[in-house]
Specification:
There is one protein chain. The protein is built from seven helices and two strands. By secondary structure, it is mostly helical. The protein has one domain: Alpha-Beta Plaits, CATH 3.30.70. The chain has a two-stranded antiparallel sheet.
């Protein structure tokens, strides 16, 4: 996913992953040297049926280009791997313009709580496809660039997220009941 942030990265995912590691690194290094990022990834959570991303656009139409690259490439890869054809996604990606700091804090919390709200894990740190660990135990290996956007210490952010986990799960259950019982 991270390679598609670079405007100059035009490889198909299936071809890129089949390259030797040294060739992958060389391609990635060339793209990084140009320092032409379409987006910064602020936060993410990959769920079984969808993904959540908070992106900061760095170039004109950067988010649209990034999403097209990632969704189209993954669809091709999945279809080839599973000997199938056709779209994987129900429709176009949905986006919301984040207008203030408070909104981004709550949006990041919502994203990081998603696996818990969906009943996939009881321990949020047990979900490996989320940037939550990057937020509460920062390392140099993260793909996220949230430090200039989320201005909270790791322990404060952890408390900010965890204190709402049961409330968000209850809201999720209520939403599912309402949607399942809606007759139109």
């Amino acid at each position: 996913m991270t390679v598609y942030r670079f405007a100059d990265f035009d490889y198909k995912y299936s071809k890129y992953t089949n390259l030797e590691i040294k060739h992958q690194h060389a391609i990635l290094k060339r793209a990084q040297d140009n320092d032409n990022l379409l987006v910064d990834i602020i936060a993410y959570c990959i769920m079984p049926t969808h993904i959540h991303l908070i992106l900061k656009q760095n170039t004109d139409k950067g988010i649209t280009k990034f999403m097209a690259k990632i969704l189209n490439s993954y669809s091709r890869y999945f279809n080839i791997r599973h000997h199938r054809a056709g779209p994987l996604w129900e429709g176009h990606f949905k986006n919301v313009l984040v207008k203030n700091d408070e909104q981004i804090y709550h949006l990041s919390r919502y994203i990081h709580l998603n696996p818990y709200s969906a009943g996939l894990v009881d321990d949020l740190l047990g979900w490996p496809h989320s940037s939550l660990k990057d937020f509460i135990a920062p390392s140099n290996q993260t793909i996220c660039n949230f430090q200039n956007v989320i201005d909270m210490s790791p322990s404060k952010y952890r408390n900010f997220v965890l204190k709402q986990k049961d409330y968000q799960r209850q809201l999720s259950l209520i939403k599912n009941i309402l949607i399942d019982n809606y007759s139109g």
